[in-house]
Amino acid sequence: MPQLLQPVFCQTFNYPGKINFGFSNTSTCTYSTADFDVATTYLVIIKYSVSAAGDASLWIVPSGVPASEAAAGTPLLTTTSAGLATIDRVCVRQYATTQNISVDAIRIATTWSDAVTPEGTVTPTITVVPTALSGFNYVDGSGPSAAQSFSVSGSDLTDNISIAASTNYEISLSSGSGYTSPIVLNQTSGVVDPTTVYVRLKAGLASGNYNSETINLTSTGAALATVTCSGSVTALTPQITAAPTTLTGFTYAIGTGPSVYQYVTLTGIYLTGFPGDITLTGTTNYEVSANGTTFGATATIPYTAATLDPVPAFIRLKSGLAIGTYNSEVVVVSGAGAPSVNITCSGSVTPPLPVASITLRPTHIDLATATSESAVLMTLSNYSGDVARYRLFSGSNQYNCWDESLDVYQSNTSYATGPLVPGTPTSSTTFWILSQRGATTLLMPHIGTGLIHILEMLTKLLHSQQLLPLPFHSAFRAISSPPAVTTTPSNMWFWDTAVQRS
Fold first, then answer.
1. Contacts of 71 (CB under 8 A, 6+ apart)
2. Is the pLDDT at 127 greater than 60, yes or no?
3. What is the average pLDDT value for the chain, to the nearest integer?
4. Dihedral Cα 64, 70, 76, 78, nearest 10 deg
5. Higher pLDDT, 86 or 487
6. Distance between CA 20 and CA 9 in Å, rounded?
């Protein structure tokens, strides 16, 4: 026979028409001293702690249904250490056939609120997971946003669930189509099985934030359920791009400016105000151009659409500047509603370039004998130093040059021992180079290739000093590709005998 836990007893009282209640784990019941009327309905509440050492409490409520244990007040009876580890049934037993008790209902629950809820009373419930969605976004003109979703279900419903989107969000039961509002989920026997609902930010919205907008889920008798949505539409930002943004190496020798131009390539997206102009603004020492021909303090590049296809913008170092460096100056590209773009420019103006030129040359060169003499009048200017020496040769053929300091023709196989250039090459000096054929067997007796060879040879020797000066003196050096002779005098002289050397 199963063990009975705290059976409730009811007996007639000593006074007619009265009863009292008690409970106990034994056949001997402990009754309360409170009396209750017969033929009266009472709510009997019994609380068991399900454990071997559990407690039990008894309330007899004459009217109403207390919403909580606290509202029920002090129990009529309480026992301690009189419980069971498990309870598997509840029984009603009549002690004697002559005793009659009417029981309207029995409710068994693990919480007070469930126990005191009138039989048959249920609360329609809508459940959503999650209750908030964020991060909806698209760039202005490219909506709607990507879809997100939540799950909705219902229980104990008496009506369908209606889902209404907010002003700027739309909903669907399919991720890719069918967006509308409202959506109705039909209940069956009070139940809506878990259903996925998709949400997205509507297309065509102005740039800005669309936060804390709610999707409302309603059903008759159910508490309002909501899903809070937050997102934004990002404005198109006009953008101009320049490549590269740093230019270096602008240079020219003083008096020969401007520098050679360099250019950057401009592109643009999301431009506004078209048709219009993008403006290049030069600096104090750099000027700009839209075509590489006409330069000035500013230049404009037209654009006729929101996109600018690649187009060059030209920059150069201005002419007329003093010797020095002109670094980290910023040319600005602006307009079309875009943030300005900076182009950093660096360059320099250098001292004058050395110049070597033939001022006067002979119409005929006599190389018939070892002592045959020739002469060329040379001009040097803008050299890095006033100590300049020279020698005259072509390949292995060495010519003897007149050395004024020794008052003799001599063969020089080294620049270091060659004759000194008279005057001041750092500014300008004009002087004669006098030469004998010497021991060389190269004979050039007429105006043809002989003259051309000698003049080319002299140009090689003289012009190359500017490219590779020696550490302790400036010397003429040979180069492989000589520049053209720049001076052609109208009166040509010819020497084939001794010439004046002073």
1. none
2. yes
3. 80
4. 140
5. 86
6. 8
* Nearest residue to 376 via CA among 453, 439, 277, 314: 453
289 burial type by CB count under 10 A (0-12 exposed, 13-18 middle, 19+ buried): buried
**pLDDT score recorded for residue 471:** 25
Whole-number pLDDT of residue 328: 98
Measured in residues, the chain has a length of 502
What value does the mean pLDDT take over residues 250-257? 94
Assigned CATH class of 125-234: mainly beta
Q: Which residues share a beta bridge with 253?
A: 350
According to CATH, where is 2.60.40.10 located in the chain?
Answer: 125-234, 239-350
d(CA 346, CA 326): 6
Residues 6+ apart with CB under 8 A from 120: none
* Whole-number Å distance between alpha carbons of 428 and 355: 9
Q: What count of other Cβ atoms lies within 10 Å of the Cβ of residue 425?
A: 24
User: Partners of 430 in the beta sheet?
Assistant: 379
| SS3 track for 491-502 | CCEEECCCCCCC
Distance, CA of 50 to CA of 308 (rounded, Å)? 80
Mean pLDDT for 317-330 is 97
Give the Cα separation of 27 and 9 in Å (integer): 10
pLDDT in tens, 408-430: 888 877 777 788 888 888 888 88
Instruction: Determine the topology of domain 239-350 in CATH.
Output: Immunoglobulin-like (2.60.40)
Residue 11, CA distances (Å) to 34, 58, 74, 96, 426 in order: 12, 16, 22, 11, 139
Which residues neighbour 163 within 8 Å (Cβ) at sequence distance 6 or greater?
152, 171, 181, 182, 183, 184, 185, 197, 215, 216, 217
Q: How far apart are CA 457 and CA 476, in angstroms?
A: 11
Among 496, 489, 395, residue whose Cα is nearest residue 446: 496
Count of other CB atoms within 10 angstroms of residue 179: 21
Both structure tokens of 344: 């950093």
Task: Give me 175's structure tokens.
Answer: 């991720």
Strand, coil or helix: 67:
coil
Q: What's this model's pTM, rounded to 2 decimal places?
A: 0.47
- CA dist 16 → 9, 12, 393 (Å): 18, 8, 156
